[in-house]
Amino acid sequence: MVVIHGKANRKPTGGRYTNAQTKRLHQKGSHATHTRIGDMHVKTVPTKGGGQKTKLYSADKINILNPKTKKFEVAEIQTAAENPADRHFVRHNIITKGAILNTSKGKAKVTNRPGQEGVVNAVLVE
Predict the structure, then answer these.
(1) Cβ distance 93 to 102 under 8 Å?
(2) DSSP symbol at 75
(3) Which fold has domain 35-124?
């Protein structure tokens, strides 16, 4: 089903608004990607204005910045340690910005939005 980002159908009192217009193409959106830990799965989708967005559905590798050496390293993702966006995301191993992941190099905090950028970047946490 299509997600529409438009005005609410109900008033604050609970009454219904009468629609003056129908759904329009520019109001169309999509569901959240919910990037998971697993084999790499990426899709490219067209965006408004002719651009493209790379959606990351699952990932097994992560780009980690080591703040001491200022170098990037590629590491394996093991599990999600904590996630401030939703505590249940940890149980399902969902990766969002701000999530702390257990990796082969240690704990890392995600610094980008993997569901919209197609890659997972993080900073090593001591």
Answers:
(1) no
(2) E
(3) 3.10.290
The pLDDT of residue 126 is above 80:
no
Domain boundaries, the chain: 35-124
End-to-end, the C-alpha distance of the chain in Å comes to: 43
Token readout for 7 is 């005005």
β-strands 41-46, 28-29 pairing: unpaired
**What predicted TM-score, i.e. pTM, was given to this entire model?**
0.84
In the structure, what pLDDT confidence band is assigned to residue 44 with cuts at 50, 70 and 90? very high
Tokens 């240690």 locate to: 106
**Could you give the CA distance from residue 94 to residue 80 in angstroms, rounded to a whole number?**
7
**45 vs 40, 53, 58, CA distance in Å?**
17, 5, 16
Coil, helix or strand at residue 57:
strand
| pLDDT one-digit tens code per residue, 98-117 | 999 999 999 999 999 999 99
Q: Is the dihedral of CA 107, 108, 113, 114 positive or negative?
A: negative
